[in-house]
Amino acid sequence: MVVYALWVINKTGGLIFDREFASGLPELSTNAFLKFASAFHTQHAIAAQLSPVPDCKGIEVIEAECFKLFCYETPTAIKFIVITDSTVQVVDSLLRDIYQLYSDYVLKNPFYEVEQPIRVEHWETKLAQLVGEWNV
Amino acid sequence: NPALNPRATLSLIVIMSSSSSSSSAAVLTSGEGDEVKEQAVRRPLVDIVDKPLSRGKSQVTLSSFSYLFSELVQYWQSRVESTQELERRLSDAGYPIGLRVLELLSWREKQGKKEKSLLAVLQFIRSVVWRSLFGKVADGLEKSTKSDDEYYIYDNDPLTNRFISVPKDFGHLNCGAFIAGVVNGVLDGAEFTATVTAHNVPNGGPAQTVFVVNFDQDVVKRDAAVNGYK
Q1: How far is CA B135 from CA B85, B115, B127, B146, in A?
Q2: B180 vs chain A: nearest CA distance in angstroms?
Q3: What is the mean pLDDT of chain A?
Q4: Where are the beta strands (DSSP E) in chain B?
Q5: What pLDDT, on the 0 to 100 scale, is given for residue B171?
Q6: ipTM
Q7: Mind listing the pLDDT tens digit for each residue in A108-117?
Q8: Sheet of B194-200, strand order
Q9: Which of A47, A87, A123, B152 is most buried (CB neighbours < 10 A)?
Q10: Which residues of A touch B66 (CB under 8 A)?
């Protein structure tokens, strides 16, 4: 059970945080990640509108042959995306804990501007701790 | 008071006819779920200032305080030129709280008794004030070896700083300056004038803060004359 990476995407589709927690992902430039994030954001929006079922919320899981991608969208349109290996079934609690850490250490920090790239020390330490518990 | 209930969509006042045994007025309200509650006899409206003071809730959620404090820091940050001035503004914001806290706690916790010595007022701050504001006593109280007017109060995890990560270009800013202002207010109100500043402890834990209290010279002299050195 390995969590490879976390992405945080803001309301307008811009990538505001990306962190790798385990090796295995290909080395890519920051620009590539920015493009992936906005691509995902548009697909997420399209999926929500295309759905035949009313009140659809958008993409939640993408299952591929060797990895899974989970997305949690908060009521404020922030998306938390974790990329894990294929053995992981459910990461709901992890996503909610990450959201909790975000609302504590990022939003209560007076030096952080909302919707901007996240560069907050406490958040990164706590995040590393949380994912470390999952990756063990 | 049913008129103030935000969930009431309908309120009817039904007056039971005098032919029935009870002649009380019943107020029917219907909320979202269409539940009907019947209230007792309508009391005459009481002016809120005539009601006795309640003791009040002694606790506020940490999140509310953190968001409010974060706004306070952001407000001043856009209006000051240096980190010292930001710390001073935060300290000024805490000062009136200290004055009020002294009065309140002297009344509630000590039956109006006044502290008469330097050490006693510091112990009061360290235990009573800290416990009432933060739910725990301060982690340390020390006298400086360098000068006889300097004392240190330690807190391993000040509430103001818990969710704040100071970016590198802000240097040694410590938002515990707010708490330093509170302590300053308490001391000034108790007539032990001093200056109080908050500093990060270099070798201590990651969040440890020391509040350095520098008493005025005449306070130190007065204390020595009244109490002598014990």
Answers
A1: 29, 22, 10, 31
A2: 19
A3: 89
A4: 10-15, 25-30, 36-38, 140-143, 150-155, 194-200, 209-215
A5: 80
A6: 0.84
A7: 899 888 889 9
A8: B140-143, B150-155, B209-215, B194-200
A9: A123
A10: 104, 108
> Given an 8 Å threshold on Cβ–Cβ distance, is B163 in contact with A109?
yes
Q: Which residue has the higher pLDDT, B3 or B95?
A: B95
| Single pTM value for the model | 0.77
Q: Is the pLDDT of residue A75 over 60?
A: yes
Closest approach of B155 to chain A, Cα-based (Å):
18
Residue A63, H or E segment? strand A61-63
Q: Which residues contact A107 (CB under 8 A, 6 or more apart)?
A: A114, B67
H or E element, residue B89: helix B83-110
To the nearest 10 degrees (0 to 180), the angle between helices A92-101 and A121-135 is: 160
Q: Is B221 helix (H, G, I), strand (E, B) or coil?
A: helix
- The span from the CA of B115 to the CA of B122, in Å, is 9
Enter the DSSP assignment of B82. Answer: S
A99 touches B: beta carbon within 8 Å: no
pLDDT digits (tens, 9 = 90+) for A19-44: 988 888 888 888 898 999 999 999 99
Residue-wise pLDDT for B120-177, tens only, equals 999 999 999 999 999 899 989 999 888 889 999 999 999 899 899 888 888 888 899 9
* Residue found by looking up tokens 């009136």 in the block: B96
Lookup: tokens for B1: 């008071």
Residue B13 backbone phi and psi in degrees, to 5: -105, 115
What residues of chain A lie within 8 A of the CB of B93, using their CB?
Answer: none
For tokens 């300097």, the residue is B150
